[in-house]
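Example record for the data management plan.
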Amino acid sequence: MKVSIVGITGYVGAELARLLGRRPDVELLEVVGRSAAGQPIGKVFPNLAPLKLTVAGELERMTEADVIFLALPHHASAETAAEILEKSPTTKVIDMSADFRLKDRATYEKWYGPHPAAYLLLEAVYGLPELYRDQINPQTRLIANPGCYPTCSTLGLAPALSSKLGKPFIEPDVIVDALSGTSGAGRGLKQNLHFSEMTESTAAYGLEGHRHLPEIAQTLTDVYGSPVDVIFTPHLVPLSRGMLATSYARLTDDFVATYKTQAEATQAVRQYYRDFYANDPFVVIVDESPYTKQVAGSNYIYICPTINLSSRRLVVVSALDNLTKGAGGEGVQNMNLLMGLPETTGLDMLGLYP
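Corresponding structural encoding:
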């Protein structure tokens, strides 16, 4: 299987190379990054030096590639995807940017500006395998890889809003507070990411609205079947990688009336979550609030749902690695499904702990 990565000089591109570079079934055909063209990949990311690849300045062999990952900024990614699909219609494209995540063009343009290839929005499949696996198959040409915050929060809330195993047991009005390591902000120099600014400090941002908000709302609305209101507040924490989301929702009257004790309700909900994700190899339902370190470097997401009957609330804590399950690992998971492979291929590594 021949695979190219466009945007190798960013953290997501590097994570894709890390995950794919030693797979015996994968040939890294091209790794592209204009700012580092002609350089050994080890000069850009020293941990990738053993791959002995040279960074290309342009994508020159697109028609030879079975799969091309686009780890580019929005707009640039859409333009490149459109070019690839026109010139090489049999090549699979997995877009790591936000360009094809939102199905409604007006919503996209509200948050990101004019769309360079809006005609592809309806063709693109949202690449969250745990919820859309049946749409991710060898006939699919274009995958919109989800954002890290949406993956962490929607997988935490989806079972409670879904009718897959029974009636939804929360109201369609949720709050998500999420913490991300600094790699989620990219590799570019920014004053608030300098060590002296970031260390021993934590801050919320995007209070006027974050671009991942409509993506979270879109997926939860799809799961629920009617609009779900979402309040989403992201926070930056002094970690290199890792993400923790705490989500809150009001329980339905029927659910509250069913259980006499909080312990009984919590036990039932955790079993419900385990049943919901029974066929999802990277979702682990845990009985204690997870730590980001427990999933570092892995494609797993740990989820701990808890019931508070006195306040009539569901509280869900979810943890993942923002560069792996929140980006590159999920991209490879999608690639496996596109190519008809077991989705765990090359992704069954455990978290780096401690």
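Summary line stored alongside the record: Residues 67 and 335 are 7 Å apart (CA to CA).
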